[in-house]
């Protein structure tokens, strides 16, 4: 399927979604529509076991909302709808049953940071910067930045960065736990693909249930999370992949998971 603001490519076991609105790959109403459709398309493809989201070019992953689209014309006629639809999209990415990796090959600010934080894993170019910079414009994040940043790095540092509109350097983002890995110039997407290939070799049902349990545990009481884990453990134990994994362990060979 062709998209106006995205490029979607499939490789062995995973897919790459490229935000394609140069120069800043900014978020418009159409990009939200396209990304919704792409996520839906890949959710139903059994050959896709992981998804990478990246940006076109090597300078900017996503520079945030297209202010013209968001506030003047475009989504401006229904700004609340633009916010709610975008939030629903990022929540869908956050709860997607297949791991979503942000390949942050350039700066990720404002809504770009919010997209990256909604992904399960983040690989960032070592010279890039990331942050919720909306307060520099006298506004606040609208796609979940005030909620996800504290969950990822803690309340105190998140408040500092949100209030000051700080752009966080990649080494600091790694130290804070905001990103998982750093990559050298020109190697961000390759590093993300390496991670996606490793994920594609894992048992898909177990991966899906891990994502589900972690999300439920982080967004509710620990007792609810523990109950979810028990149910998921009993569910995954009935799969063919669990039988294969245990047999492979005892016979000292690599497992061959089938997603069943």
Describe the structure.
With about 260 residues, this protein is α/β, with parallel strands linked by helices. The chain folds into 2 domains: about 5-200, 2-enoyl-CoA Hydratase, Chain A, domain 1, CATH 3.90.226.10; about 205-250, Lyase 2-enoyl-coa Hydratase, Chain  A, domain 2 (Orthogonal Bundle), CATH 1.10.12. Helices cover about 50% and strands about 15% of the residues. It has helices at about 30-45, 65-70, 80-95, 110-120, 145-155, 155-165, 170-175, 190-200, 205-220, 220-235, 240-250, and strands spanning about 5-10, 15-20, 50-55, 60, 100-105, 105-110, 120-125, 130, 170, 180-185. The strands form 2 sheets. A 6-stranded mixed beta sheet has the order 1-2-3-5-7-10, with helices on both faces. The protein has a 4-stranded mixed beta sheet with strand order 4-6-8-9. The longest helix has 16 residues, at about 80-95. The radius of gyration is 19 Å and the shape is globular. The protein starts with 5 loop residues before the first strand and ends in a 9-residue tail after the last helix. The mean pLDDT is about 95.
| Helix-strand pattern | EEHEEHHEEHEEHHEHEHHHH
* Overall pLDDT: 94
Enumerate the strands of the largest sheet in spatial order, edge to edge or round the barrel.
Answer: 1-2-3-5-7-10
Q: Would you give the CATH topology of the largest domain?
A: 2-enoyl-CoA Hydratase, Chain A, domain 1
State the shape.
globular
Kindly provide the name of the CATH class of the largest domain: Alpha Beta
Give the strand content. 15-25%
Distance between the termini: 28 Å
**Main pleated-sheet profile:** 6 strands, mixed
Count up the domains: 2
User: How many helical stretches?
Assistant: 11
Radius of gyration: 19 Å
Estimate percent helicity.
40-55%
| CATH architecture grouping of the largest domain | Alpha-Beta Complex
Helix/strand structural class? alpha/beta
Which regions have little confidence, pLDDT < 50, spanning 5+ residues? none
By CATH's scheme, which homologous superfamily of the largest domain applies?
2-enoyl-CoA Hydratase, Chain A, domain 1
